[in-house]
Amino acid sequence: MKMLQIVCGEKLEAEILALFQSLGIKGYTIIKGAGGSGQTGTVSGTGGSIDRNTLFMVALEDDHIHMTQVLNAVKEIHGRHIHGYRGLEIPLKVFLHPCEVILSRGEARILGQRGQGKVEWKPPPDHPHRAPLKF
Question: What architecture is domain 2-98?
């Protein structure tokens, strides 16, 4: 599993959300008003729309069909904005990290040796999926 993190200026937020909708991605986290410092300068997270970032987090399986589609689409968004920033760094960064579910609704436990990325999830009794799932 991979955790895809997209950090963008607030002005690009609607394009990222439209991308998720077009690909049918329904599971993601949004953190609005993120601040920080990097190649595009310092963003306080408390100012106007040019001074706020949005952080998107999406967990996808390694072989998930959306992985390549999301990465290619974000590159297209980046390409569309190059001329609008007149040579300045575009406030759009993408990071991909290994991701392992440690705790979720139900009981998760690691199967096999550490680092193999195999997890068994045992749902709570009231969950619609009664059988354990293996990832």
Answer: 2-Layer Sandwich (3.30)
Q: What's the confidence (pLDDT) of residue 50?
A: 61
* Contact yes or no for 58/3 (Cβ under 8 A): yes
Three-state secondary structure along 33-71?
A: EECEEECCEEECCCCCHHHCEEEEEEEECCCCHHHHHHH
User: For 95-108, how does the pLDDT look when each residue is reduced to its tens digit (9 = 90+)?
Assistant: 999 988 777 665 55
Using a 10 angstrom Cβ sphere, with 0-12 exposed, 13-18 middle and 19 or more buried, the burial of residue 55 is middle
Alpha carbons 60 and 86: distance in angstroms, whole number: 34
Please answer whether residues 58 and 28 qualify as being in contact, where contact means their C-beta atoms are separated by less than 8 angstroms.
yes
Q: Where in the chain is the domain with CATH 3.30.70.120?
A: 2-98
Secondary structure class of 3 (helix, strand, coil): strand
pLDDT tens, residue by residue, 75-91: 999 888 877 666 677 88
Dihedral angle over CA of 67, 25, 96, 122, nearest 10: -100
pTM: predicted TM-score of the whole model, two decimal places = 0.69
